[in-house]
Amino acid sequence: MTTVSENVESPSRATGSGALHAFEHWLLNYRRTWHGSVFSGFLLPLLFILGLGMAVGGYVNGSDAIGGADYVAFIAPGLLASTAFQIATGELTWPVYAATRWGSQYKAMQASPLTNDDILNGHLLYALFRAAVSAVVFFLVMAAFGLLDSPLAPLAILAAMLTALASIGAVYAISMSVKNESALSIVHRFGILPLTLFSAVFFPLDQLPLAIRPLAWISPVWHGVELSRASTLGVAPPWPWLAHLAVLVVWAVGGWMFARAALAKRLKV
Amino acid sequence: MIRTFRAARRERRAAPPGNGRRIRLDSVTPPLYRRRVQDMISARGLIKRYGDHTAVDGIDINVPKGQAFGFLGPNGAGKSTTMRMIGCVSPPTAGELRILGMDAATDGARIRARLGVVPQDDTLDTELNLLENLVIYARYFGIRYKVARERARELLDFVQLSDRAESKVEDLSGGMRRRLTIARSLINEPELVMLDEPTTGLDPQARHLVWERLFRLKQRGVTLVLTTHYMDEAEQLCDRLVVMDGGRIAAEGTPRQLIEAHVTREVVELRFNTEDHGTIAEKLDGTAQRVEVLPDRVLLYTDDGESTVAEVHGRGLQPASVLERRATLEDVFLRLTGRTLVD
């Protein structure tokens, strides 16, 4: 009989591979549905680009407000970032709520060598993975429609991933903490949806009254959208790109710390 | 030769009281001077409080390697809380707890890597099939895919679920889920397996199948720690057990020792149709070493059931039914706590 150590990849906890092992769990579940999600990953940008970009674009193309750009080319990078945001956060609402209350996935992980941080990071990694798949697919559709005007365009994928990274911690913390599931519908309706609508995805921020612009300034989605747009259009973002990046990093780190505290509170027995 | 569980039970029943079990116990209990090193679990003054409620109130336990150790007690006695502390999921409020020679407070992940855990509620992923459940659980332990798949196949065979390998968990019966959970707990080849109420809610046939598999594990030298509120389960599986009540340990020993120390060898159960049990008690006074009046029956603790029954009839009493039996852990529990195990 072989000994345990020969068959174990990471006998030392110091390697930090626990999060990857927790991530594999969600990946295994995803295997059942990935065909559908990749298909919808193609369909969603297609519908947006055809429906909104081409149709609405007919009215606003060449408008000064969007710097004379093609409307499709204007909204596509914004949609790229906001879709990554929506997919990642969507993965962390009901699934996170369910994992500790309806299902027993977390309980099973708790009995294993995985730590709370492994459990948290594994789930966050999965949300990022889903966002990455959708971002790449979206990017390919954009390329197919000739919407990439800059050699820096691939950086838009990175911007989309940063948008997702900046949002997942906070959403995870909320889903882990809410008392009942109806609160999750409120998160979707009054959190995720307005963030998408008022983060300069469909129109430039200066179209909004000055009074509500600060809401966008603190929104991780707006900063991600602007970085994404700067990448594909090859223009300078409204703020220095380091400033945009800094806000995203603050969100990512702060969100992760909240998520960690929320999980520890929930799993405490 | 592998002795089957049922054969072992027959032998135990045929043997004079205490004998069969003592011989086996000696073979698994290390000499005193080695015991401290070999202890799989060692707890001193272990306490768990939730706010004002004290779930576990200062218990001491030692479980040597290879032993099947049981926590017997009613719901709410603190058994599951103790199990969660030993499983390094719930940190103790106070006291010292060492598992596999490591400190539960600081080495949780390293200890869990070497434990097998069968929780009270099956924590299986109902959306995955049986094989996937085992393989993904193996991955939590960092076990390579190839090895994980091999072990998963072997373990499904061990719990007699090979033909259901590709089925979804939601299609399994309660007994099958329990066996799958036991298989899963063995995926990391643990030295210590913790089972929280392994057969609660199972029908008799399913229970026996689980018991038989656990007995096999015991034969392989795996240390088993289990909780139960079934005294027959404790008698079947445990080399040694503690009786828990209200977060404390009320008694400790082998099942035979507990019975010898706390109750008589035999028990006569009487049921009366018409008369009030209170007045019956007076009439029965002196027929046995102890008379216990329960709402539905009267228990007479005696070393000689036959002469006790004769004495009852000699006093002109006409019970509706008379049952002479050996004393069990249920009687021990009743004696120690004044309550029955399963209400």
UniProtKB/TrEMBL annotation, chain A:
Put simply, this protein is called: Transport permease protein
Which residue windows are transmembrane per the record?
Answer: 38-59, 71-97, 124-146, 152-174, 186-205, 241-263
Q: What are the record keywords, sorted? A: Antibiotic resistance, Cell membrane, Membrane, Transmembrane, Transmembrane helix, Transport
Signal sequence coordinates = none
> What topology does the record note for this protein and the membrane?
Multi-pass membrane protein
Locations listed in the record = Cell membrane; Membrane
The record's listing under Pfam families reads: ABC2_membrane
Identify the domain of life: Bacteria
Similarity comment text for this entry:
Belongs to the ABC-2 integral membrane protein family.
Entry's InterPro entries?
ABC2_TM, ABC2_TM_bact-type, ABC_2_transport, Nod_factor_ABC_transporter
| GO (cellular component) term, any one | ATP-binding cassette (ABC) transporter complex
Q: Name one GO biological process term.
A: response to antibiotic
Record-annotated ABC transmembrane type-2 domain positions = 36-266
- What's a Gene Ontology MF term here? ABC-type transporter activity
Q: What is the lineage of its organism?
A: Bacteria, Bacillati, Actinomycetota, Actinomycetes, Micromonosporales
